[in-house]
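ARCHIVE RECORD
Type: protein–small molecule complex
Small molecule: guanosine-5'-triphosphate
Source of inputs: curated submission
Record status: active
Notes field left blank by submitter.
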Amino acid sequence: MNEYQQTRKIEQPDSKELTPVVKPRLIAQSPAVCVPTAHGHFKMMAWQFADGSEHLSLQAVDAEGNPRTVSGDKNDARLFGPAVRIHSECATGDIFGSFRCDCGAQLAQGLRIIQERGGYLIYVRQHEGRGIGLVNKLRAYSLQSEGLDTVDANLAQGLAADQRDYRQTAVILRALGLDTIQLISNNPAKKQALLELGIRISGLISDEIEPRPENHTYLETKRERMNHLLTPSHHQKDTP
Ligand SMILES: Nc1nc2c(ncn2[C@@H]2O[C@H](COP(=O)(O)OP(=O)(O)OP(=O)(O)O)[C@@H](O)[C@H]2O)c(=O)[nH]1
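STRUCTURE (tokenized, with ligand):
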């Protein structure tokens, strides 16, 4: 064990606590294709499951298609696994840059982190609205405009605050050989969900973004009610 390994514990669940799960059936995967983007070059693969769900994985590479990586420091991917961002689809934030949430900025920052230090991003479709879908998410936005917060707006619809299922994500991680990762996330529940699916987590890398007046209350709710590891915001109030 070297000096870096001594400083970090790789977390894994007690095997007795593993959730008994039905393994989602992966029915197709694309070849890995190099795609140049505004965020750098990525090797992308598409994944399809028997229920019709499709997801994307992106590996950060250089212009020649060689995987980016860091070695010989405290984040060495050979010791601790690569940095991995599991990003839940958010059409409003990721595509249109909505300021109601932090998703678009987190996506850009996550891609920047993996370009800097190597790693992967799994773009999980069917996770839209923390798993409730677009119609229910926009219903939730409407309820939030009437004063409910992001948690209560789900509950008021008879939905869980977070309905995301990470089983397909875990299948993709395993297929990519990523069973030990440094998770890019501020959400301890996401880490716990992956641990329970047998993914080993060697640390959390923050994907916190600078709050805006428009998403101050949303981020405070995530911090206070959903236990996200976020700095208390200094903004006074959301603007519409
Ligand atoms: N139901 C609901 N979903 C939202 C709302 N705002 C954003 N989302 C969804 O929230 C999901 C992202 O979850 P977040 O709670 O922002 O972050 P996280 O993925 O749990 O944690 P991080 O890894 O730190 O980003 C995306 O699927 C968004 O579509 C909202 O007000 N209501």
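CURATOR ANNOTATION: Residues 12 and 200 are 5 Å apart (CA to CA).
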